[in-house]
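Batch job 17 of 40 flagged for manual review because the log was empty.
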Amino acid sequence: MLDQERCILCTRCTRFVDDVTKTHELGVFGRGHDERHRVTPGMTLDNAYSGQRRGHCPVGALTAPGLPL
């Protein structure tokens, strides 16, 4: 889960998905004040490392329901 109000758009999570998993299913879409992290249209965020993105978020915007931070 992503708390957009906490997100500072550092793109660490998108770079992790691009560089480590090579699956490219997460990106920053929109411009200016409408920029948001989103799953790429037509894709799902379910790669083998999807739980590891939480550790890359410097502000704790990424969480997993039912799991401690």
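Reviewer: the log was empty due to a logging misconfiguration, but the result itself is present. DSSP finds one helix and two strands in the chain. Unflagging and moving on to job 18.
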